[in-house]
Amino acid sequence: MEKFFIRGGIPLHGTVYISGAKNAAVALVAATILCDEPCTLENVPAISDITKCLDILRSMGAVVRMERDGVIYIDPRSINTTEVPYKQAVTMRASSYFLGTLLGKFHEAFVPMPGGCDLGDRPIDQHLKAFRALGATDKVVRGANYVKADKLIGNQIFFDMVTVGATMNAIFASVRAKGQTIIENAAKEPHIVDVANYLNSMGADIRGAGTDVIKIRGVEYLHGTTYATIPDQIEAGTYMVAAAATKGDVVIANVIPKHLESITVKLRKCGVNVEENDESVRVWVDKPLQNTTVKTQPHPGFPTDMQPQFSTLLTMAYGTSRVTEEIFNNRFRYAAELRKMGADISIEGGKVAIIQGVDHLSGAPVQATDLRAGAALVIAGLAADGMTEIGNIHFIQRGYERIDEKLQKLGADIKRVIVPENDSVEMSG
Ligand code: EPU
């Protein structure tokens, strides 16, 4: 078992380079199934969720080759099954993308129920609604979703809520369907636009990605392409908050500043300086942090995937802050861990955190409860007095490429240590 040991209290300084976006890259890898020729993906982050997606492709017969760091060649022509193996599917949300891509290409998919971070109930009813609109049927077989269609025909799809996953899957299932599909109330996240651009670079006809109406005219053939993943908005936001929490001065490079606007606005409200350049942002602090209110929203609103990190910053800001989680119904499990570090944070009705700023956090042994909660604890550890020991760091490695090395380059005292299993404290009750 691996843990992070962080000696906190050191302001971060220097430049950090942001990797390709996890939530774009997992979708791009799955989308490659739709292609009729080999593709090369660039700027793919080295994270465990990508390893699992690539393993799924290999297990289905695709040729997958790492050409060099971040560059992956995928030949989907040798795929010989429409069944996704249980082991990889159940640990990852992105496995649901294989439903849409296999259905779109082979008119059939068998995918074990997707896993992913435990953020509350995460149904896929809207994904299935989209498939049904295009002519597919679905049933649950042996704990897996089985979808099938004799043919897929374009249709109008209206989502009951804004959902990233279902928007992706509706695009995947309709990109080779007959005729036109119109997706309304579509998600507008940067990774939706990235996936549409990737498919269009293969010859797909997708218009309107990034707005709430996406129009897709089905095509019969998709040709090979080479495509670079966009930078990770959430990884960038995490380093922005880490710079602020440690009262440092950091240039976050290889980013699209426009994607970071909602985070930038909230940091400025807290008294943090943010300077936007063409492909980088500089974040530094020269005065005490102030409280603010945050409400998570679909893009372009404040991203739920930044909520734990930002709440952690607010535990060290003067006054009372209020953070409302509007996307998931159980995304404050990390609050109990922050309390162990001296944070004053209480949760009302599962959706609202009331945070009373304290002068400083103090290091403690804590456990990551999911990916972004883990990132939040890293930020807390970097800012806290003394030593923080973070367990369950495999969650963090799902989505942050070499986070310990990147932080070390910024001057942090963080070590990844292999700890024998029996050194962990058993909980009961
Ligand atoms: N929802 C439904 N029915 C559906 C689909 C979604 O009720 O059929 C609900 C969800 O339960 C949730 C809301 O709609 O309350 C939004 O869910 P969405 O579908 O947008 O989320 P997702 O596709 O499951 C992706 C990211 C998450 C990110 C959310 C929101 C990937 C692989 N995952 O999840 O990323 O939080 O969008 O932006 O792209 C993370 O990276 O840490 C992470 C959790």
UniProtKB/TrEMBL annotation:
<keyword id="KW-0573">Peptidoglycan synthesis</keyword>
<keyword id="KW-0808">Transferase</keyword>
<keyword id="KW-0131">Cell cycle</keyword>
<comment type="similarity">
    <text>Belongs to the EPSP synthase family. MurA subfamily.</text>
</comment>
<feature type="binding site">
    <location>
        <position position="93"/>
    </location>
    <ligand>
        <name>UDP-N-acetyl-alpha-D-glucosamine</name>
    </ligand>
</feature>
<feature type="domain" description="Enolpyruvate transferase">
    <location>
        <begin position="7"/>
        <end position="407"/>
    </location>
</feature>
<dbReference type="GO" id="GO:0051301">
    <property type="term" value="P:cell division"/>
</dbReference>
<keyword id="KW-0963">Cytoplasm</keyword>
<dbReference type="GO" id="GO:0071555">
    <property type="term" value="P:cell wall organization"/>
</dbReference>
<dbReference type="InterPro" id="IPR005750">
    <property type="entry name" value="UDP_GlcNAc_COvinyl_MurA"/>
</dbReference>
<feature type="modified residue" description="2-(S-cysteinyl)pyruvic acid O-phosphothioketal">
    <location>
        <position position="117"/>
    </location>
</feature>
<keyword id="KW-0133">Cell shape</keyword>
<dbReference type="Pfam" id="PF00275">
    <property type="entry name" value="EPSP_synthase"/>
</dbReference>
<comment type="pathway">
    <text>Cell wall biogenesis; peptidoglycan biosynthesis.</text>
</comment>
<dbReference type="InterPro" id="IPR013792">
    <property type="entry name" value="RNA3'P_cycl/enolpyr_Trfase_a/b"/>
</dbReference>
<dbReference type="GO" id="GO:0005737">
    <property type="term" value="C:cytoplasm"/>
</dbReference>
<dbReference type="GO" id="GO:0008360">
    <property type="term" value="P:regulation of cell shape"/>
</dbReference>
<feature type="binding site">
    <location>
        <position position="305"/>
    </location>
    <ligand>
        <name>UDP-N-acetyl-alpha-D-glucosamine</name>
    </ligand>
</feature>
<dbReference type="InterPro" id="IPR050068">
    <property type="entry name" value="MurA_subfamily"/>
</dbReference>
<dbReference type="InterPro" id="IPR001986">
    <property type="entry name" value="Enolpyruvate_Tfrase_dom"/>
</dbReference>
<feature type="binding site">
    <location>
        <begin position="122"/>
        <end position="126"/>
    </location>
    <ligand>
        <name>UDP-N-acetyl-alpha-D-glucosamine</name>
    </ligand>
</feature>
<protein>
    <recommendedName>
        <fullName>UDP-N-acetylglucosamine 1-carboxyvinyltransferase</fullName>
        <ecNumber>2.5.1.7</ecNumber>
    </recommendedName>
</protein>
<dbReference type="InterPro" id="IPR036968">
    <property type="entry name" value="Enolpyruvate_Tfrase_sf"/>
</dbReference>
<feature type="binding site">
    <location>
        <position position="327"/>
    </location>
    <ligand>
        <name>UDP-N-acetyl-alpha-D-glucosamine</name>
    </ligand>
</feature>
<keyword id="KW-0961">Cell wall biogenesis/degradation</keyword>
<dbReference type="GO" id="GO:0009252">
    <property type="term" value="P:peptidoglycan biosynthetic process"/>
</dbReference>
<dbReference type="GO" id="GO:0008760">
    <property type="term" value="F:UDP-N-acetylglucosamine 1-carboxyvinyltransferase activity"/>
</dbReference>
<keyword id="KW-0132">Cell division</keyword>
<feature type="binding site">
    <location>
        <begin position="22"/>
        <end position="23"/>
    </location>
    <ligand>
        <name>phosphoenolpyruvate</name>
    </ligand>
</feature>
<feature type="active site" description="Proton donor">
    <location>
        <position position="117"/>
    </location>
</feature>
<comment type="function">
    <text>Cell wall formation. Adds enolpyruvyl to UDP-N-acetylglucosamine.</text>
</comment>
<dbReference type="GO" id="GO:0019277">
    <property type="term" value="P:UDP-N-acetylgalactosamine biosynthetic process"/>
</dbReference>
<keyword id="KW-0670">Pyruvate</keyword>
